[in-house]
Design brief:
Blueprint (H helix, E strand, L loop, with lengths): L10 E4 L4 H11 L5 E4 L15 H16 L3 E9 L21 H13 L12 E11 L5 E12 L15 E3 L11 H7 L1 H13 L4
Parallel strand pairs: 1-2, 1-3
Antiparallel strand pairs: 3-4, 4-5, 5-6
Helix pairs in contact: 4-5
Length: 209
Amino acid sequence: MDDAKRFAEGTLVIASHNAGKVVEIADLLRPFGVQVKSAGALGLPEPDETGATFVENALLKARAAAEAAHLPALADDSGLVVPALGGRPGIESARWAGPKRDFALAMQKVEDALARSGPGGTPPRDRRASFACALALCWPDGPCSTFEGDVRGTLVWPPRGTKGFGYDPMFRPDGHDMTFGEMDPAGKHRISHRAIAFRKLVDACFERC
């Protein structure tokens, strides 16, 4: 994005209350010497995610955090997209985990829905899926830039691995034998949907220290 505003401040708010997501984004930002503060640590409220797309929801969260904290804010909206389920859970990926953010429950919901999604309520042959990510970087005075990335793969059952977060243990990216839940963070960071979007973000807005 050629017209994206360059980040020159020392502190960036990560507009998320998801601890795993905050850690992952902080790891990706480490080479750029940015001090990271999470919206949760700052006590910022979570805005209602009323957007119809990942980009719209990322913008809602980034703008709300930037205005409340008077600092630049980076928001991520991401989720699991399953074609056999009509694209669900999609932008409702976090909501499938319920108020307690129970992603074991969310993964079971995906598996249960898949089991009923084939012809006549039978399990489908197609277990293809993708992870999609939209990043929005906003400043308190208004400018925002957005960046998108996705990674494709196959859903496995039962879930495998205890690393990562969210739906990672049931997602095996194309070209790999391990799920995201089995990969070490460095390996996942090289290929994930968030990493793809993040590379676009840093190319446009950040300079390596």
